[in-house]
Structures are given as structure tokens and as C-alpha cells.
Amino acid sequence: MSAVRGAEAVAKITTLPLHEALVIGALRARCDGAAAHGTFVDELAGLMGPATAERIEAALDGFFDLVLRHGRRPVLRHSASCACVGADEAVLAHLVSIATGGDSEDAMLMACLLVRADMAPAVVSQARLLGLELQRGTPDHPHPPAVQGRAVTLH
Fold first, then answer.
1. What is the DSSP string of 61-72?
2. Which superkingdom does the taxonomy of this entry point to (predicted)?
């Protein structure tokens, strides 16, 4: 039962900021094989230009290599065409966001959910690098507004 929870749908991909959706899309493409990964990289280059896409791809590779190699358990994901975001996917994308924003304590906590504790600092560092590259590549794309208070009802 606990392994299935990592795939439980927690959001729709269309509701995420672009940089988080790109992290999830990259994970799905990477896990779907070389052809899917190549298509993703081509789309990224079309969206951001070849030089930026190359830097982002290198940062994605470094991040996913650490997470997938040192994971506490397998990372669960949805298919590339699925509109849902699974719990594990959401944690990965959010980890990149908070590491980029400088909230290192929360980033370390999230990383410890995903990987061995001794690897968490390296994962947070790589997540921050990835997030900064994504910010550089997508500076004009909106982010969701900050939420005030502790609890929010979305629907």
C-alpha cells in the first residue's frame, strides 16, 4: 500500500508552474527510454533555445542520477501523457522549487523523504542548480501567487 501512495494523484500538470511541469516531464521522458528522452530534449530546445536546453538537460541529469540511484525506494510516476501529477513527482518538482528559493531546511527535509540522509545535501545542491537553470530559461513565465495562512481550500 505505501508504494502505491507515491503514485497517488495529487494535482494536475496544468496547474503547476512551468518549471515544475518541466521537472515532471523530464522524469517521465527519462524513464520512458531514449526516444522519449530525445523528444523531450528537442521540445525543450524549441522552447528555450539549444544552449539553455543543454544546460537544463545537464542539470536534470545530475539531479535525477542522484535521486534515482540513492532513493529510499523506487520513485513512482505517471505516464508521459497523463494529466495527473503523482505524489512522488510533486515532491521532486517542489523540492526543486524550494531549494531554488533558498529554503534549505525544508529542502533537506524533502530530500530525506526521497533519498538516504547522507545523500540529501548533494540532492538539495543539485536541485538548486537545476532550479536556477530553469529560472534562467523561463524568466517570463508566471508562478502561482503566494498563499497566505496555513490552510487553503482549492476545490
1. HHHHHHHHHSBS
2. Bacteria
